[in-house]
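Duplicate of #3305? Posting structure anyway:
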């Protein structure tokens, strides 16, 4: 089961370290639970160090990466460098598609860069017609109407979408749900047979709420 914390453009390095100091010792250690925290690029290095020092059961992910390798691409963060810090990268989030004009083609280029550098892409799709790049097996269904609105999809519909995504893209893909998940509703998603976890934005910023979410997830393993 997956729990992915997407902090978006939030938390200074000091705030990230404070979150880790509180959450790290309380995240359940379980071989069937994978918790990935995705801070801003500028906090990745410190977050990674704190996780190693604390021996916390957390992986580190980025919220994006460059469609190019190393070279003359000012401002971009290439997978070849990020690989030292992260195991996962969120790609194709609706906020990037909307605000930065990301297309399926760019997302496929980014996914290829990630895979070539041993980083697992987490492809965000907003419906069943969005392209999932080849060999990408971790997918998050995140309906735009549910992102940051406090208005989640129904667990039943999210489950149906996950079923369709698997039918279209192969049963090997694992589908997560994201969009206004909280400690109060997380179980209703985690009990759906075609869902393999959740991606959490706003509720992951609040350390106590996030710990509660992880503990509830454990009850469903
Ligand atoms: C997200 O944007 O990936 C997300 C899950 O956001 P929220 O939980 O805030 O709806």
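Output from current build:
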């Amino acid at each position: 089961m997956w729990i992915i914390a997407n902090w978006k453009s939030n938390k200074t390095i000091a705030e990230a370290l404070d979150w880790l100091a509180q959450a790290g010792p309380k995240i359940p250690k379980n071989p069937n639970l994978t918790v990935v925290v995705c801070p801003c690029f500028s906090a990745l290095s410190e977050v990674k160090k704190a996780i190693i020092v604390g021996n916390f059961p957390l992986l580190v992910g980025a919220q994006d990466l460059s469609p190019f390798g190393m070279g003359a691409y000012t401002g971009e963060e290439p997978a070849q460098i990020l690989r030292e810090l992260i195991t996962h990268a969120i790609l194709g989030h609706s906020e990037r598609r909307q605000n930065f004009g990301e297309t399926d083609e760019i997302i496929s280029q980014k996914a290829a860069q990630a895979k070539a550098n041993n980083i697992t892409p987490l492809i965000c799709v907003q419906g069943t017609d969005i392209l999932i790049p080849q060999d990408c097996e971790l997918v998050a269904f995140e309906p735009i109407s549910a992102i940051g609105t406090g208005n989640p999809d129904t667990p039943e519909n999210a489950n149906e979408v996950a079923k369709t995504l698997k039918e279209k893209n192969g049963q090997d893909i694992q589908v997560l749900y994201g969009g206004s998940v909280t400690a109060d509703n997380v179980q209703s998603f985690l009990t759906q047979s075609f869902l393999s976890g959740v991606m959490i934005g706003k509720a992951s910023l609040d350390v106590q709420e996030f710990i509660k979410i992880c503990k509830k997830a454990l009850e469903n393993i």
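Confirmed duplicate; merging threads. The beta strands are 2-6, 34-38, 59-62, 88-91, 120-125, 138-141, 174-178, 195-200. The longest strand covers residues 120-125.
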